[in-house]
Amino acid sequence: MKISDIMTEKSVVMGIKANSKRQLLQELAQKASEITGINDRTIFDTILERENLGSTGFGAGTALPHGRIADIDKVYGIVTKLNTPVDFESIDGKPVDLVFMLISPEGSGADHLTALAQVSRILKDEATCSKLRAASRADEIFSLLNN
Within 10 A of 120 (CB to CB), how many other CB atoms are there? Predict the structure, then answer.
């Protein structure tokens, strides 16, 4: 699975201004709704339910919120780079500025796990994250994610 299998350049969200984790997830759910056609409240509730099990902020300013939704047709990825980091209750206590949200069909065990592993590798790579943070346009971020 390649990143281009789960997202397009339109899946890169620039300019989100969020003051909290909750507000950030609402904004990402809204964008995911536009891309998938799934109700934004359904997406938000699914992602928040997963977050309530434990934060998906895994350190170094990155987070990977994710969830499974019954009426979705494939795995979708949405990514954002925040100008102002937000508290995400990350394991290292640091606020996040790079967030990659994944939503998958309910029965997509292998595809969901493959996508999580792929995105996790990207977000754990310090050099890639530095380049993502330096990028100022959606097309740059999309290109970096696909290399």
Answer: 14
Helix axis angle for 138-145 and 126-134, nearest 10°, is: 160
**What do you get for the CA distance between the two ends of the chain, in Å?**
13
Determine contact, residues 65/71, Cβ cutoff 8 Å: no
Residue 45, pLDDT score = 95
Task: Give pTM, 2 decimals.
Answer: 0.91
Reference 12, options 84, 105, 73, 76; nearest CA is 76
- Our count of domains for the chain comes to 1
Rounded-to-integer distance, Cα 108 and Cα 83, Å: 33
**44-95: pLDDT as tens digits:** 999 999 999 989 898 999 999 999 998 898 999 999 999 999 999 999 999 9
Q: Any idea what the CATH number is for the domain that residue 135 is in?
A: 3.40.930.10
Name the residue range of residue 118's domain.
Answer: 3-145
Residues across the chain: 147
Positions marked catalytic: 66
